[in-house]
Each structure stands twice: as structure tokens, then as C-alpha cells.
Amino acid sequence: MSDLNDNDSQSISPFEFKDQLLAIASSHADRMMLNAGRGNPNFLAIAPRRAFLQLGEFALQEAERSYSYLNSGFGGLPETDGMLQRFEVFRHNHEDAVGMRFIQAALSLVKDQLGILPEQLLAEMVNASLGCYYPQPMSMLKYFEPVVKAYLRQELCDGLKAGDDFHLFATEGGTAAMSYIFQSLHANGLLSAGDRVALLTPIFTPYLEIPELADYQLHVVELEADEKSNWQLSPDELHKLNDPDIKLLCLVNPSNPPSVALSQSSLQALTKLIQSQRQDLLVVTDDVYATFADSFISLFATCPRNTLCVYSFSKFFGATGWRLGVIALHKHSVYDQLVQDKNDDEVNARYASISSEPKKLPFLERLVADSRSVALHHSAGLSAPQQLQMTLFALGSLIDSEGHYQRGAKRLIRSRYQTLYQNIGLPEEPSESIVGYYTLLDLGLLASRLHSQAFADWFLGRHSCAEFLFRLADETGIVLLPAAGFDVHVPAVRVSLANLTLANYAAIGQFARQVLDEFFQEYCHEQERSLND
Fold it and tell me: What CATH number was assigned to the domain covering residues 47-130?
């Protein structure tokens, strides 16, 4: 068993700590290892992928129309003239293909709902499939952007009119978006060493680690949510944002790892404070788990002027390997205002090679430039095939007006949640705000509910969360993550409910209970010895 203790589990990333557990859990050849430590889903969206492949076949046929006389594997750039008619012939010859029906529905939807001509979207799809052009515009392709914007309005705003006046920057997943944002905030003087940054904790570990890097040297102020408040913002914690020295607020909503969405009351309170008292506050909301919530409303919808939104397609569509994310920012944002107000000659000079009037360059365009160190701005942009698959995912949800895929994904995740707790011996129904992509097992709370508060006090006084994790890995082959690395201030472990089967979660529940019961037996023996002495 490893010599790492709770202090070690807090000083290193939980994902590095996980590697220690994986080594222990996989050391027994006579059993299967169950890794519920990472949130890579074991489900994925099929129809948009079929459409991607069908588009690829049609795109190749279009390319083969040129240079065929060379007979050497050459193709040419597709011709837009007559492409829609040729596609109709192709569709007729493949009318039974699921992917083809998807494409036809998509072309019809964008014409009816977004005012995009089918031939315009089809041409962009064909060229994107072949990857034969540099992405232009570099932030996001022209006809793909309004499709993904419509998807975000549908999924993040729940009917609220958040405004169409925002633009997107397609990125290599949500992680690249995070890196680009901090980099540009620093490059533009919106964040400087020693500035205060508020984080709504618990939170995804990189948000805790990036501000402390030598590159930024930011001071972190935590707005702590806890289990007693169902992971919501209390008035006292919210009050911390009244500090004018706090320049930026970052939150993951629904949260990671508690996997709880901000309640209506918390969202309203936060919105009211920003609009009335902190109109200068920069906000980054990471809404990757929004599509697993019911009737979700993002801070991007309620505070559009202040809020930059990060969204990733990886979890909901089972596409972590595709690296698909977007940054969304309204045109008339606080980010742009602050950049214009600063009008820093040194900062403006940074962008002089890409704009004749760099001081007027919007913050989103600065993000795009900074993503390629400005000097390589001409080669910026997410690859066109990646943007195509992202757009097809978005179209999948827009076409599925009844929400069949979304309901299925929610049902799958929540059935795993219930199975886990039933097999621990504490049946639970997820509340309205609980999304359930992850769950936190509070060891002290479990110990008291399963046995007694006296046992819980003994357990927390004598044993550590790290010891529980190593014992679980060694005896059962199950790997979970320590919650301390996400700034959870009680001894707890994170269980991903995305990547295993119902039977596996039943086993995790049973074995977690088994290990706690073993600790309880130790407690009982010790109590007996104390009485005998």
C-alpha cells in the first residue's frame, strides 16, 4: 500500500493521485479494476457521427470530379455550383442511410429556423469534411457559428432571450478555452500579478491551479459552497464579491465534483449583485454539464454583459477524443469595455500586426490571436473537420425537438446515481438541482448514517480519506478520486457516474460499504478492549 497520506492527496492534483491508486488497483491479476475516477463517458451520440461519415463520402465524390485524368489519387477543390443538385442525387442513392436522413433534416432546419440557405451550409460542410481550407473566419466558420449559437441558446438559456449579439471562438475542448482565457486576460492587462480572483468552490482542479502559476501569480478568494447548503452560495459567501479588488469570478455550473446546478435563488442573488454592485466584474462560467440538468439557465443568459461562457461538447455527446469546445462572448461586454478603457499602448502594439486599429480589436478576436501567439494569427482556428463534427452535434439536439437523446442520457446517469446509493445502503433520489454526472461520498456523513456519530468521529480521528481510497483500491480494485483536490473541505471522494455499467456501480456501492464496515469492526474491537481494560 502507498505511503501517501491526506496531506499528500491535497498537495498534488487528484489526477496525479489517481495514478497511485491505479497502480494498486491493477496489481491483482485475479480481478477486474473498476476506475470511477475520471469522467470520460461510456455513451455517445450515434446519429451526428453517421452524418459525418456520409458527408465525408459525398465530399470525396465532389473532390474526385477534378483531376480524374491524372489517375494518381488526385482530387480537386469542390465546386459550389450545382452541389446541392448533385447532393440530391447522392441522397436518393443513399436514402435509407440514417446519416443521410439526418443531413436532410439539418439542411431543412437551418433554412426554416436560421435563414441559412441549404447550399451555403452544404458547401461549408463539404469543404470542412475535406479539411481543404484554412478555417476562415478564424474564430469559427461562417455558417457553423449560427448553428452552434442556436444550440447554446436552447441548452443554456431555457427560453430566456439571452440575445443573439454574441460571437463564438471554437477551441480544442474546454481545457484549451481555459488556457486561452487566462492567457489573454493577462496579456491585455485585465489580470496582473497580485490581483484577486474569486472561485466558487468546490471546482474543477485546474481553476485552482492556473491562478497560482508563476505566469499569473493571482490571489484566490474562495466562495465556499458546502453540502449543508446543497452546494449553493450562502449570502455570506456571496457578500465576498463586494470587494472591488476582486477582478474575476470563475464558476463551474453545474459544479464539479458535487454535480449540482445553481438554484434559481442562488442564480438570482448572484445576478442581482453583479448588475447592481459589481458591474465591472469579469465572469467566466464553465457550463460543460449543463445539458444533464433540468431547465438549466446559465449566468451567460442572466448577466450577458459580464459573462464569458465556456462550453464543451465532450461529455454530453461522448466526444472527449474530438476536443470540441467554444468560448461565447457578447459583443458589448465588460471585457471589451475594460480593454477600450485601458487603451494601453504596449498592449495595442501587441496586435498591430493583425489590425490597423488594434485599440478597437474586440476581446474575442484578441483571444483568437493570442491562441497562436499573435504572430501565427493567420493559422489560428479549430480544424474544419472538428468544427463540422461540433456543428453536427449541435444540429442533433436542434433536430431532436422532443429531446429523446437528452432524456436518455439523463436517465442513464441518474439510474447509476440511485444504484450506487442503494448498494451503499442509503437509497437516495436525486433532487431537482442534482445533475449526477459525479457524486461526492462524504465519508464522515456515510459513517454516521450507516453506523453512528461516535463511529464517524472515531473514523475521522484515526483514519484518513487517502487511507480509505488506498484500502478500497487494494482490496477491491476500485479507483475513486480524493475530493480535497477540488477544494472540498470535508473528507470525501468523487465518483464519476459516467463511465461504468450499472452492475459496476452496484459493486462500487457494495465495496465502499464493505470497507467502511471493516473500519467499523476495528472501532467495535477497540471499544471492547477499552471496556475490558
Answer: 1.10.20.110
